[in-house]
Amino acid sequence: MVQTRAQTAAAAVATAYMSDAETAIVAHVERASIAPLAIANVPSVVDHLANFAQHFIAQTQALAAEHVALQQQSQVLGHAQNAALMAMQASTQSSVRQLTDRQRAIVEELGEALTATQSRLQDQLQHLQMLQDERGGQIERFVNDSLAHAQEEAQREAQIAASTHLEGVRQKLLEMEEKIDGGLENISQHVQQLVEDSLAASQLQVDSCEEPTRAVLLRVSRPH
């Protein structure tokens, strides 16, 4: 795994520090071994410095080993972290793809459902329109039939009334005709009687006038 810039810089600083420390200790030990005669005459100081140098070198080496272990652990952690990040990134990308696919599927399902709903609504509207048209036609036919029936009933009633009225008028005319005929017969009989009476009276007058005439004629016709 590739180290980060901070990890690389920290490792370089630690390596340089350990190299400088080892160099300084070795130089200090060499100077102590070739020190002036006064120091050589004091064995306890030399031993103390040597022990100090060895202890410092051991601590430095332990620190270096610990640093290396920490660096390795950091690398392992870095590898694990990077692997975890990569896995997380892959999981995130997979989740995003799944979410995108799911959203696309949901959008498609919603679109299909909306289209189906619109189609059903359109069919229902057409069916309702057909029912409305059919019902309107039925209502119109019912109204027309009712009007026609009412008109026929009115005409029949009018015909019945007219027939009844005509029958009454005809009966009245017959009654009037009978009365007129009866009156005319009475008048005719009365006129006939008047005529006969007039003729009889005229005949009497004629007869009365003829008697003197016949008498005169008889006297004239007799010889003297």
Q: What share of the residues does DSSP label as strand, in percent?
A: under 5%
Number of strands: 0
Helix content: over 70%
Series of secondary-structure elements, N-terminal to C-terminal: HHH
The mean pLDDT is 70
Silhouette:
rod-shaped
As a whole number of angstroms, the C-alpha radius of gyration is 80 Å
Structural class: mainly alpha
Contiguous low-pLDDT stretches (5 residues minimum) are 32-42
Number of helices: 3
Give the termini distance in whole angstroms. 212 Å
**Main β-sheet description:** none
Write structural notes for this entry.
With 224 residues, the chain is mostly helical. The protein has a domain at 5-119. The protein is built from three helices and no strands. The longest helix is centred in the middle third of the chain and has 179 residues, at 43-221. The radius of gyration is 80 Å and the shape is rod-shaped.
Short description:
With 224 residues, the chain is mainly α. The chain is 95% helix and 0% strand.
Highlighted features:
single chain, 224 residues, mainly alpha, 3 helices, 0% strand
Topology summary:
Elements: H1 5-33, H2 37-40, H3 43-221
